[in-house]
Amino acid sequence: MIIELGHVSLxxxxxxxxxxxxxxxxxxxxxxxxxxxxxxxxxxxxxxxxGFAFFSLTHAYVTSxxxxxxxxxxxxxxxxxxxxxxxxxxxxxxxxxxxxxxLAAFGFVVSIFxxxxxxxxxxxxxSIQAAIALGFYLFILFTSNPFIRVQPAPANGNGMxxxxxxxxxxxxxxxxxxxxxxxxxxxxxxxAALIEGRVDAxxxxxVRPWIIIAWMCLTIGIGLGSWWAYYELGWGGFxxxxxxxxASFMPWLVGTALIHSNSVLEKRNALKAWTVLLAIVAxxxxxxxxxxxxxxxxxxxxxxxxxxxxxxFILILLIFIVGGSLILFAFRANMLKSASLxxxxxxxGGLLLNNLxxxxxxxxxxxxxxxxxFIDAISFGEEKVSVGAPFFNAVFIPLMSPMVFAxxxxxxxxxxxxxxxxVFQVLSVAGIISIIVALGFWxxxxxxxPWGGVGIGLGVWLILGTLIELFERTKLFRVAFSEVVxxxxxxxxxxxxxxxxxxxxxxxxxxxSGAGTWKVESIQTMxxxxxxxxxxxxxxxxxxxxxxxxxxxxxxxxxxxxxHGKLISILKPEKRYYPVRATTTTEASIHTMxxxxxxxxxxxxxxxGAFVTRLYFNPLVVWIWIGVLTMAFGAIVSLTxxxxxxxxxxxxxxxxxxxxxxxxxxx
Length: 667
Prior knowledge:
By secondary structure, the chain is α+β, with helices and mostly antiparallel strands. It has helices at about 1-25, 35, 40-60, 70-75, 80-85, 90-115, 120-145, 165-195, 200-230, 245-270, 270-295, 310-330, 345-380, 390-410, 420-425, 430-445, 450-475, 480-490, 495-515, 620-640, 640-645, and strands spanning about 520-525, 530-535, 535-550, 555-565, 565-570, 575-580, 585, 590-595, 595-605, 610-620, 650-655, 660-665.
């Protein structure tokens, strides 16, 4: 019965979204306050109804209700409880229900914490959020219903994809969805601003926290996905330019550009139209990623195999939302002209360069991802083209390198007009140190791949430039230490957030440069007692043991890793077999050090008791995860900035003499 109630609840959420779209949005043109303020309770009702629908499906998974087709296809009674819960969104139908739950949750949070928004703007934002939800409700109910019953109910289910039975990937989809759907708030603010024809510094301050939240969740979600692929798939790599990886990376790139563009709008009241366009494009890339993953047009270890009808529905939804918003932008963008002028060599110019390079990078990733699909379509499947890491590395990295260089320069430039020669004088020591580091690694690793040294040199340049900028703000070495401390603790938290964000990116670049260039790999067959030396570390194989756990069988290898006779670690990689799905997976064993990871994978067993083994040394890879966490922490610090807690003037309701109610600013 609870499944039927969940189904009805989702239908009611659809009906509420129709009301939330129609009445507040259209009454905003001819103010009717009773209809306008209806957006807030409607957003609460929609959230509660979707929440109950999601709870109903979760209850079916937890109780192993195999009368529900979705549970049969994606769960099993032998699964641990945690994976029965995460199985709710480890499939197409459940993940789309999670999508609309997060979408409704964001709308509800905006209605609660948006009390300082103008009443009409708030109503329009909530209506646009509901319009997006409406499209996805129709998609779920007509093509992806998770509440379908199956009769007779089987005794057990088919189980979840074993690759998804992992703590990292259990958190990966919700965080990615928080990022994807979080960008819908910026999109809704942008469309509402286009309708009103007004974008200013106050609007930028209202929307900025939502952009940061979405960007932070995307950062952590992408990082978790990369980490999962690194240790779960057993390939020893962290990024493969997989089409679905690219689908999450594109909105991250545009979202990063949006943060910087929004900063210019907030501080200088410039780049209005550009900021609105980026908000539209960022969410459009989120929708494009949804289409790619769920349309069945691509093959990926991450993708859902979905029938074409669902893909067509999402494509129509994508065209409607993206096409409609771009048409609106084309008609209304001329109303968003900026009065603020600036020279190319200025803080604004540096941030605009950042935007252009980020946007170009996203375009490169888009072209590389869609080009094989385009060729396949026009050749009717007769010609297959693959675009992989060589293309992306050759085009994307040269685009991003000048951006990283400019990131250290930009903060030292003055607004409107900057002195580039003065900046180079301030950063001269940082430049010399970075060049020395780059040349040192170039010479040291010349045979293994010298370009990693260039990447590490860029990372060091960004670290030093970021720290020097912080020192300049506090006047370190120029005033008394007590004054330095006072200035340090009086800096706005958004400044600390920027510092941490830039440092995190620098750590990420260093990690990618080392692990992507100097990875050492050794593949061989090893019998018990055999040893292999990888990058100076001796791996002694002691054999394999077998066993059974809750829902899988395993073979576990054992490696003793030493360096110059000193014990470094004991690695125990596993090969797992899941009988329900008849699927085999690998579980890498990893010992992490700041200098790099020792990485072991065990493969097939031979007739003589030997095993195929893959052993790696991945230099500096831990700095990738350190960089991701540092950037995410920087976003959290930025969100605690006082200006976002105080906000802007709030709204109050008063009555005019003729009795109609309107909103007014309250200082």
